[in-house]
Structure formats: C-alpha cells, structure tokens
Amino acid sequence: MKNLNLTLFIFILFITSLIGNVVFNFNVSLIYQLTLTIIFLIFLSLYFIRFFFYLNHLIFLIPITFVVPFLENNFGWFLYFVILSFSIVLQILDYDRKKVLFYFVLFVIFLWIRTLFYNQDKIVFSIFLTILTSISLILTGKEKSKKKSLEERFENIRSKNKIIEVSPFMLEKEKILNDYSERNRMIVNIIDEAIISLLSTLRTLLNCKSVIFFLYNKDNDYLFIEAGISSEEINLKKTLSNRGNFLYSVVRDHKSIKDNLFIGDISKLSLYRNDTVVRSIISLPVIKSGECVGVLYVDDGNEEKFTDKDMETTKLFSDQIGMILNFAEYAQQAKTEATVISILNDITHKLSKTFDFEEIIRTVTESLKMVINYTNYFLVSFQKDNLKVLMTDSTIKNFSEKISEKSFLFFALKDKVYYKTNLKDREIPMYLFYKGDGIGLFDAAISIPIFFDDEKKIFLIMILKEKILLDPAKIFLLNFISDISKTASEKSFLYQRTKDLAIKDGLTGIYNHRFFQDELSKILLNAQRSEKKVSLGLLDIDHFKKFNDTYGHQIGDQVLKHIAGILNESVRKTDLVARYGGEEFVIVLTNIKDDSFENVFENIRRKIEEKKIKVKEEELKVTVSIGFSLFPDDTKEKNLLINYADSALYKAKEFGRNRVVRYQK
After folding, report:
1. Which residues pair with 392 in a beta bridge?
2. 611-647 pLDDT, tens per residue?
3. Range of the domain at 564
4. Which of 140, 404, 513, 599 sits in a 20 to 30 Å window from 192, CA-based?
C-alpha cells in the first residue's frame, strides 16, 4: 500500500508537470507537443513496470522535470524531451553496462553540441545535468546489481526443499522484489552465511582442498553448486547436467562415499574452472525431514587423506546444514512472529560458528530467556545414572549425585522436550532433583535435551515460579532449539576430542610433550612481564622397569595413569602437568613464593608414596624422584631451565631416589 501511494503521488506530479509545461511554458508546435506526450506516457508505463530499481533515477528526474521548462529559448523543452527519452532507452537496454555506457556517451555528445552551438549561456546547467545523470546511472546500476543478486538467491533458495513455499516471508517473488525485499534478503542471507560458515569451519578441521555444498532440485532432478570453500576457483551457481556422476547416486540412494584412491574424471563434475588433481573424496547426503535436499562434498589432492573420523566429522556438518534448512520451515509451522524469527536467526547463526560448549549453552539460555522468562536454569548431565550439574545461574551449586524417583528430572529423562505446570497445586510436592535439594517449590519446569548418546545425556532444565502455557508455536520453537543444540554440542565434543588428540597423551589423558613445550614458552613470557617466578619439576617413577618386567606392560600403563591422576589432583588450574616421555612427567608451577616450591613438590611425592595401587590381591607401592629448577633465579632460558631440572632429577636418583632435589649451580 505504501508503494502504491508513492506511485500515484509521483504519477500525479508528472501529469501536472506535463500539462503545465505544454500549455504554459513550451512554445512549440502541436506535433512536438503530441510527440512529447506519447514519450511521456511510455515513460510512466515503464516506471510502473520497473519500480524496484527505477525509483533512484526518478529522484533525479523529478527536480529536473520541474526546473528545465523555465530555461530560456526552449532549451528547457529540449532537455525535458532528452531526459524522458534517455530514461526509456535505459529501460530498453535493461541497464546493460556496456550498452548504457555507449548510449550515455552519445547523450553527452548530443547535449553538449546543443549547448555549445545554440545555448552557450547554459554551460553551467549542462555541466550540472551531466554530473547528475552520471550519479543517477551509478546508483541505479547498483540497485540493478542488488536486484539481480536477489533474483539469483530467490532461484537458489527455491531448491532448498521448497523453503520458498513454506516460509511466511517468501510466498511470492514479487513480494521479495518489492514490498518485503529487505526482510526476505535477510532470511536468504541467514541461510547462506550460516552454510558458508560451516563449510569454512569443516575445511579448517579437515585441512583439505575443497568443501562444497550442492543443492538438489527435486522437481527438475538436478544438482546445483550452491556454496563452496576451496583453494581452487569453483564454478559457483552452476548446474551439474551429467546425471551419471557419483553425486547423483548419493542423492538417489542416500549413500555416503569415502574414496581415498579416487581415479574418476573430476572435470565431468564441472566443479573447477581450471584443471585440478583430486585423489581423495567424501560425499554425504544432506537430509531434511527424511528427504535428500543436497550433497556435502569434500576433496583433496593427496591419496589416503581422509580417515573414518573425518567421515564422522563431515556427517556431523551435513546434519547441521540440514538443520539450517529446517529454519524457515520451523518458522512457518510455529507461526512465529518477528521477535521469534529474530531469535531463531540469532541462535542459528551463533551456534554454527562456535565449538565452545559453554558458549553454546550461554547462547541457548540467552535465547530461551527471551521466549520463556524462566527463574533459573540447570544444565545437568547423567553418566552411569550419576547426576552432575555442569552449569547454573542459581546460587545453589552442590547437589547429590542421585535423584529421587518422584522428582521432575526422573520423568524428564527423555530425548524430547518435556514440561510440567501447576506443580504448586499438587498434594504431593514435586521436587526438581530430590527432597531437600534446596531449590524449593516451583510452579513449572521444562526440560530440553542438549546431548543424547548411550553413555552420557545432557539436559537443560528451566524452572518457573509462575504457571506456563506452552502453545504449539513455543513447542515447535523449543524442539528447534533442542535439535540445533544437539548438533552444536555434538560438534563441540567432536572438536574437543580431535583437539585433545593433538595436545594430550592418549594413555594418561594429560598434556603431551609438544603442548608442554609450546605452553612453557608462553608461561615464561608472562612471568617475565609480570616479574613472577616459575618452577619446573621433572618427575621420574622409581624402578619403573621392574613394574613392566614383573607385572607386565598393562600394569605399567596402570601405574602411569595412576601417577597422572595424582598430579592432576595436586596442582591448580594455572599450573601445568604433562607427560614428558616414557615414565617421566613434567610439572610447571606458577605464582608461588620461593620457599613454597619445594613444599608443593614434596607433597606430590608423599601423596604418590602413600597412595598404593591395587593389583588383584596385592597392593603396590610406587615412589618417584623429582628434580626442579627456578625461573628466573637459575636461568631465564627455557631449554636451560629444563636441563637444570633434569640435572636435579639425576641428583635425586643418585642420592637414593624417592626424594625432591632443587637444582644447585
């Protein structure tokens, strides 16, 4: 309605201008007046047809139209005629850059011939008109580019399993191009940006050549290169016409492919603009509501590049793309309003970009707070029937590891959204965890599964002091948040496991030698800046070879894990414990007074000696020797600090083992 009113307003202005100028200002013959009127009507009709990007040009045309008629010697009639004609020609040329530039040059030449030979006193106005028309062309050209981009996105989004039909924002193309273009452009961008972010993250994780997402258009049975991240140039927005290639079998059969000795002709896929070598590939279907809506494709130029773990990681990302494509459908089913759409947009965008589990939970709880004004939340995990509260905004932190069979949580242990209300009206009160948990009575509680597998289950529990009514819209919203949170959490845990493989020792679970070397450099640099002291201790298990020879290597491994556990319990979060190699461990203590370093190492030695290992019916006593050095007292060099601690460890063994020795120059 707003655009229609604006159209009619401009239409009336132009009609008024035409009548006024022809009757009162232009001293020309009737034939010229009729010609001008016909051209003017064509101009107006084009304006109505091509409103979307034509408005910017009109902004410049309106003042000129009302100014030029009052110029002398009928120069105004000439410009009036030229401007209208120029606008019509632009429409006929469809703002093709080369054609428009050529015509613009002709326009300028024509204008200046008239000015210099017939109206020399109007040079200033001709300069103004030339500049103004140039600006108009530039701005209108930009609008043309935006329109073209929007039309392409519209066509692309159609194949996102008919999101265009189910989304309340994309029912008609004309609405995208006119009344609701900005809002729909936002929705298209949400999906595109989230998918690009996922592809970029997956490529970083796998360290591969390319990660590409193909959309599948079911109606026309073709694959389309929707988005991709690659070290090579990709033919984006290209349709794959060869239906005999393996990607179509992924779509038809929902088949997953991992081939580390790929010998096919990659050029048949038309993926790359230049010739490129591909020797390893992964291709997985992207599933939405049980149907394949696309293919996630990964490749690299090296043979034997991808592992089963890489396949699992890629599957996780294909699932998340499917979740993103569900975004608009959830919005339609839930009949959500603009605020909820904004929440879905925000949470989808943020969760697709982070691997940090705590950040995932913060994003989820902040989003839910805007929808459900809960009193407190509790993030709880169950592993082997033991309860653990991972995060909460409540002041109550300490809970028993067991829950009551009459508690809300006992009934909420399901892989779906669960809620209860009117709990204060019950004759038998329902507690959150167990009677006496300290939380008190509440009137409503909601449970949302965040992570669910055979070993561990994580739920986000929200309690409310007032009654709550969850209508279908909110149920759909909670289900959507639960689904996307599960995928984000799984991605986070997988990333952490992958990261741990790189920085942690596989047997003991503590940091490895490589991480220790990198981290020690940072610790010493920070200590030097803050003028604090650092102590580095090397620990060696006494007579470790005897454990292996007498009891076997399995018991030897058990001893190593036993020592690592005690070390982890004995230091602060600011300290560092790592496996140095073999039966040696390294301990880095920070921000401790000079006379306290040896006490800490001595306490560790004594704990290990006192805490025996049970092997069948026998208890084994383990002792260790520790040598340590001090930064910066002994040295400011990292390697020397390690060497000095090693020398002190050698002295500890020389003096009879099971003791702590400080380095002495």
Report:
1. 378
2. 988 877 788 899 999 999 999 999 999 999 999 999 9
3. 513-662
4. 140
